[in-house]
Write a structure and sequence with these properties.
The protein is mainly α. It is built from seven helices and no strands.
């Protein structure tokens, strides 16, 4: 009887140690996997942003051919692109990409004042490619933001909050470019 009681006590103590250890281990692995998903998703955004960056020089040169005296806007786009390419941290990158988006919108908006530029097949093709690039960035950004949300939620819930503090895991910043689709997308032409 005493031996049975001793074995039951040892089993209960073993369970009291093993179950929390397993929960901590599983939670840590889940947080690591979610953090890696965020990294992968950010890499996808990065690929699409680089494609967008590659579209900007020919777009600027096309606009320059039709609107040479709009040098301030053209320089603003080139400067914003250079800053976006040089940004190192995610926070700097986000700020630089938001600035670049605003400058691209200004450039596209300026093109509205030049009917011959709007009618240019080359400009139309570049604008279409830019819209496609923005759509890919938007889709990748959504996936990244969902991954960040899931990671952040797990970090705030118990036992993730405890494990996150223990292993110094921090939340991630959402990625929002503040893209104004109105100026980038081609407006529908309605004729009566």
């Amino acid at each position: 009887m005493l031996l049975t009681l001793l074995l039951v006590c040892v089993a209960v103590v073993a369970l009291l140690i093993a179950v929390p250890a397993y929960i901590a281990y599983a939670t840590h692995n889940r947080l690591v996997a979610l953090d890696q998903r965020c990294e992968t998703a950010f890499g996808d955004i990065d690929v699409h942003l680089k494609h967008r960056h590659n579209l900007i020089p020919p777009l600027v040169e096309t606009v320059r051919g039709f609107a040479k005296h709009e040098s301030e806007i053209l320089q603003g786009v080139n400067q914003a692109r250079a800053e976006a390419l040089q940004a190192t941290s995610p926070e700097m990158r986000l700020s630089a990409e938001q600035n670049l988006t605003q400058n691209i919108n200004a450039l596209i908006g300026m093109a509205e004042r030049y009917p011959e530029l709007k009618a240019s097949a080359h400009f139309s093709e570049l604008r279409r490619e830019l819209v496609d690039a923005e759509n890919r960035v938007t889709a990748s950004r959504r996936f990244y933001n969902l991954a960040v949300e899931e990671y952040g939620t797990t970090l705030r819930q118990f036992p993730g909050s405890y494990i996150g503090r223990l292993f110094k895991m921090n939340g991630r910043m959402r990625f929002d470019l503040g893209i104004e689709r109105v100026l980038i997308d081609e407006p529908l032409a309605v004729k009566f």
